[in-house]
């Protein structure tokens, strides 16, 4: 699976592309992904023409183990024998998001103005499955200002009786900012393919919004794109489009000082005013995804994205996260720790460890322990998760928790979730100033959580990225906030 991006800006050194992508034209760089490997190199890097290539090598076995390859109705062997290793798909988007993240976000350390400059770019994809063929391909890219060339790839002649292949070799030409092009590709590659190969959860809406804010609303095929992206979950797609409209109306009102109010967009905004309750009611989440389930989905997705196979769930409670992890063979080694023996007993009963096949059950251990004390059993893990735990600790004791987790256990990653206090306004039944749970010792705003996290990073040599859990309110943010910490060394 190959994607190339070529810059031919006249009068400048085309190798500037290397600064934008933050990948040096003279070096081959390889990255591990949960489902394989990704290599970045430059087949051509001259002053006039600079072409970067992203080669994605998918390991079908890893893909299945990570359950990323399973889709309902696949025959058993289809999980292993399919064209996923060779064709562009959502896995390409995952890779783009990982290796070109800063370019996608419009960041360019050395030449910030370059990120805001439109460049003559040519993008080639070696084999993309397109449901809807060339007309759909043009319908998607041309309104965004691309010149589209597509060549349908023939089936091997032995199979010609089967008709034509659904694969296209594609060339897209445009004059645009690299970040816009990457965001288009991120959203549209899986849309062409129509199948997303990994779980579509509520967090997907956030990704779609983040990557398409600037362009999807005005696109003639916006409904189809959102629907396909969200794998035909219509109501999720509608929710996403309404949120886009909502953001747009906020922006307009902001720019014009005083919006007129009472517009159609306002009505939409109210209908979708995203309280936890309304999300629960939202048809889209027919499965009645409660905030708790969204939280677990988000955590599992993140753990996979960072490739954490050995996970310690600290303050595991009754084992909600553990039960997700143990049923998923992506995770090889799992430990759940809690200070409450009663919770551990409930976890043990719920997980039905004694009725699981030995091979499955032996991956999980439950430990009794406290996060206030150094514990040798907590060292050498890929990731530690503390899901809705810190707010149960007395503020003066947070310092001990920080030392135990970030100073002594020092896993490669730490995922911490905690309520976002600002969002409490949207819980109608919650009196102002009250906490969501009687055992909470505090609930932080986003700024409070971020300043605490930042200080941890400085003291213990970690960096942190923040993520929303649940659908965020445009002003008040998400119901739950998550920090994903990564160790610097
Ligand atoms: N992570 C679970 C439980 C969250 S409730 C979930 O999301 O469902 C908070 C949990 O933290 C409780 O199970 C509580 O027993 C545990 N806890 C509180 N203080 C702790 C400490 N000092 N060490 C370990 N666990 C602790």
Task: Summarize the structure in words.
By secondary structure, the protein is α/β, with parallel strands linked by helices. It folds into two domains: 2-198, Hen1, N-terminal domain (c-terminal autoproteolytic domain of nucleoporin nup98, 2-Layer Sandwich), CATH 3.30.1610.20; 276-487, Vaccinia Virus protein VP39 (Rossmann fold). Helix content is 35%, strand content 21%. It has helices at residues 16-21, 60-65, 90-99, 101-104, 112-115, 133-141, 178-193, 203-212, 222-229, 234-255, 264-271, 276-281, 291-305, 320-326, 341-351, 358-361, 398-409, 446-460, and strands spanning 2-7, 29-33, 36-45, 50-58, 119-129, 147-152, 167-176, 310-314, 333-338, 364-368, 383-387, 413-419, 462-469, 480-487. The strands form two sheets. A seven-stranded antiparallel beta sheet has the order 2-3-4-1-5-7-6. The longest helix has 22 residues, at 234-255. It is globular, with a radius of gyration of 24 Å. The protein starts with a strand and ends with a strand. The site of S-adenosyl-L-homocysteine has 16 residues, from loops.
What is the level-2 CATH architecture name of the largest domain? 3-Layer(aba) Sandwich
The CATH superfamily of the largest domain turns out to be Vaccinia Virus protein VP39
Range of helix content: 25-40%
The shape, in one word, is globular
Brief descriptors of the model:
489 residues; alpha/beta; c-terminal autoproteolytic domain of nucleoporin nup98; Rossmann fold; 2 domains; 7-stranded antiparallel β-sheet; 7-stranded mixed β-sheet; 35% helix; globular; binds S-adenosyl-L-homocysteine
């Amino acid at each position: 699976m190959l994607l190339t991006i070529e810059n031919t800006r006249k009068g400048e050194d085309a190798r500037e592309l290397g600064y934008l992508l933050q990948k040096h034209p003279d070096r081959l760089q390889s990255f591990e992904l949960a489902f394989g490997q990704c290599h970045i190199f430059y087949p051509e890097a001259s002053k006039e023409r600079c072409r970067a290539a992203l080669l994605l090598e998918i390991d079908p076995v890893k893909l299945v183990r990570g359950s990323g390859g399973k889709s309902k109705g696949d025959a058993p062997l289809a999980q292993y024998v399919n064209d996923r290793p060779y064709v562009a798909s959502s896995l390409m988007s995952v890779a783009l998001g990982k290796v070109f993240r800063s370019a996608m976000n419009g960041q360019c350390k050395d030449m910030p103005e370059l990120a805001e400059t439109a460049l003559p770019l040519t993008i080639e994809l070696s084999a993309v499955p397109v449901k809807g063929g060339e007309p759909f391909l043009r319908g998607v890219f041309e309104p965004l200002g691309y010149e589209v060339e597509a060549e349908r790839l023939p089936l091997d002649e032995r199979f010609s009786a089967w008709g034509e292949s659904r694969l296209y070799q594609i060339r897209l030409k445009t004059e645009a900012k690299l970040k816009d092009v990457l965001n288009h590709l991120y959203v549209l590659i899986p849309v062409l393919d129509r199948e997303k190969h990994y779980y579509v959860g509520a967090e997907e809406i956030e990704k779609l919004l983040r990557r398409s804010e600037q362009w999807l609303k005005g696109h003639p095929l916006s409904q189809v794109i959102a629907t396909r992206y969200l794998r035909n979950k219509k109501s999720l797609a509608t929710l996403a489009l309404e949120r886009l409209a909502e953001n747009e109306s906020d922006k307009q009102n902001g720019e014009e000082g005083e919006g007129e109010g009472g517009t159609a967009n306002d009505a939409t905004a109210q209908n979708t005013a995203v309280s936890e309750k309304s999300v629960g009611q939202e048809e889209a989440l027919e499965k009645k995804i409660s905030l708790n389930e969204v939280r677990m989905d988000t955590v599992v997705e993140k753990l996979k994205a960072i490739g954490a196979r050995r996970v310690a769930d600290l303050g595991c409670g009754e084992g909600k996260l553990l039960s997700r992890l143990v049923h998923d063979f992506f995770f090889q080694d799992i430990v759940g720790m809690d200070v409450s023996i009663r919770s551990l007993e409930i976890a043990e009963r719920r997980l039905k460890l004694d009725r699981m096949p030995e091979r499955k059950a032996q991956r999980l251990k439950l430990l009794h322990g406290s996060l206030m004390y150094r514990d040798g059993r907590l060292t050498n893990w890929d990731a530690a998760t503390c899901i809705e735990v810190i707010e149960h600790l007395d503020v003066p004791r947070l310092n001990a928790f920080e030392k135990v987790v970030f100073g002594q256990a020092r896993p490669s990653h730490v995922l911490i979730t905690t309520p976002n206090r600002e969002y409490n306004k949207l819980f109608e039944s919650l009196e102002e100033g009250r906490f969501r749970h009687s055992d909470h010792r505090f609930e932080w705003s986003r700024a409070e959580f971020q300043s605490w996290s930042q200080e941890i990073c400085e003291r213990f040599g970690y960096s942190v990225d923040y993520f929303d859990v649940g659908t965020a309110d445009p002003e008040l943010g998400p119901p739950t906030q998550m920090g994903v910490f990564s160790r610097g060394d």
